[in-house]
Amino acid sequence: MEEQFILRVPLSVAERINRVLSENAYSPDDNSIEVSFSDDGRNGTFVIGNDRFPASLLDLPGIVESHKSYDDSALIKTGDIGQMIVVREEGQAAAAGPENRDGLTPPMHDARRRRFRRRPDINPEVVSRVEEDLIRIMAGGTAQNVEVEVVEAEAEAEEVEIEAEAEAAAAASDDDREASMAGNRPPDKKEVAGSGNKKETDQDVEMKDQDGSESFDSDDD
What we know:
Blueprint: E1 6-8, H1 11-21, E2 33-37, E3 43-48, E4 51-68, E5 76-87, H2 111-114, H3 124-138, H4 152-183, H5 189-210
């Protein structure tokens, strides 16, 4: 699979590379261009002719598309570029980290700080351990260094307490409803009948008084 990089070199080296590409090199030695990296894959050496320059492989803050054209009109995409080889003069300080601080164009100056959110502060050891556990689980094993906490008994006690509170609330609601119904209950038929008989008795007493009979009070008083 083809993989593309951006090559950033000092101006003096860029002129020599342009001469090599245009086949107008000053000496046959300039036709030799080589890039090699150490075991870490980040630091290496850029060789042109008999001169050697330190080089670093840096990640770009964004993805850059590369295109080619045969007629200077139609563009054909050839790949996505996410890394850059930076060649520096001997004695020049290398970049602080694996990522280049700026992009390729002026609007992408200090892009990581101005245009992107901060990376989360996560311990790399934790990430590595989680990755190993996932690989082990997918292979049919179990995760290591796992702490198990039994919470079933506590959950059951909380559930019983909630049910008891619900039952008590339901019983209180039933008592309130019965008391309300008792206050609004119509009078008993016996009470209504007794009240009617007393009224009739009073009328009889009054009629007896009007007839000239012996008067008396129906009440015991």
